[in-house]
Structures are given as C-alpha cells and as structure tokens.
Design a protein that fits this description.
254 residues, single chain, alpha/beta, 5-stranded mixed sheet, globular
Length: 254
Amino acid sequence: MADTSDTNAFDLESIDDPRVSAAHTRTVPGTDDTGSLTLLGIVHDHPASIYRVQHVVQTLTPDVVALELAPLAVPLFEQYAGESEIPPSRGGEMSAAIQAMGPDARAVGIDAPTGSFLRTVVAELRDRDAAMLTARRVLSDVADLSRHAVQCRLAAVMGPAGLVSMDDTVPEMAHDCSHEDPPAVQADDEERLISRNRALRGATKTPLPISLLDTAREKTMARRLDQLRESGDVVAVVGLEHLDAVTDRVDTGH
C-alpha cells in the first residue's frame, strides 16, 4: 500500500476545510527517475469532491493531471473547463481539475477504452476462463464505453450546434447539496453517500462481468500513471471505488 501520510507539497491534515481530507487522498512518492503521484478519490459530480480536486490541483501545480476519462473524451472536458465560471457548470470534477491546472500542465485521459485496456480485457477473460455469456456481456459493455467516448469526441469537434449535444454525452449527477452550501454541509453529504455506497457494495456480490471490467480498467489506469510519472509530478482524479486498487497496482507494479 502506498504511503498515505504525506503529499509531495503540503500537509492535508493542516488544511482547515473538511472537504480536503487525507482519507480520500493517496500518495506515491517520487524517485530519482519518476515524479510523485497524488491520487484523489471523488464522488462523481459532488460539490465537495469538485472543491477538493480544484484545491489540490491548484496547490500542487502538477506537470500532469490524469483523469478517469477516455483519452477521446478529454477535449470535451477541456471545452467545459474554458468557462469563466469557477468551478465550471459542466463536466464535474474532471473539467474542474483541468480548469485548476497551471499553464504548462497537461490533462490526460487514463481510462478505457484504449488499446492497452482491450488487451487487458482479453487477458482477464482468458485468465478467468470466463464463460461465453460472461464474455458477451463484457464485450457489450466495452462497446458501450467505446461508443460513449466517440460521442464525447464528436461533441467536442462539432460543438453545441452540431449533431451531437455536449450536455447529452456527460449527464450530471444530482446531489443533496450545492456549491453554495457551507463546507461542512458538503463534506457531511459526501460522507453519507460514501458510507451508503460502501454498505451496498458490501451487501451484494459484484457480478463477474463488472468485476472483470473494473479490474481491467484499474490495471490500465495504473500502467498509464506509471508512464506519466516519467515526465514529472502527477495528480490523478479517480472514483473513490477505484482509489485503493489503482494505488496498490501502481505501488506493486500492477
């Protein structure tokens, strides 16, 4: 498991804001040959997560901001990040992270679909000796991921006046608090959602196709993060359900 007590530039525990919590952050220290890696776990589109991402990216000023997005989808979120509103009104924590980057930083999508991901899916199906029904479900989900990534790229190219609506490609999730609520209210609402989701996952067994895809995605993201660290310090934004798994795979070589 990675060292979670320190970050490469500041002490999270000293920040007087409940939305910026070390509980949702993991750090892999840099070496002589690689930059440091700070992973931020988020609840998608939650105001507390969006604030955490923006604050940490602005403070750490990384060379690379790695996002749980398909590479094809990044240009769409870069457009969202170009809004004058802070944080952007669209794109959740992903566009917020891009908006908070320094002028010399770059945003990189590390999630599926990529060639590495597809090869990993095939390897997982083979290693688990998956039944034909499982394989068909996995491949169907891969096709859905690919279709969504292509829609995002088309939306970025064609814009709001094109055939593809940018808003339709990235549906926003509704939460019981807003950016206008006090920090403690946002943090409490986020923790409630986290506890509820953990309880649901603990009470049910994850279907094999979903488990297989999650593993393939986490391996893919970890490999890409290791590559990105060769060019400097990295801040990665991933869903909380992937935070520990991705960190462990980076730390142990996938």
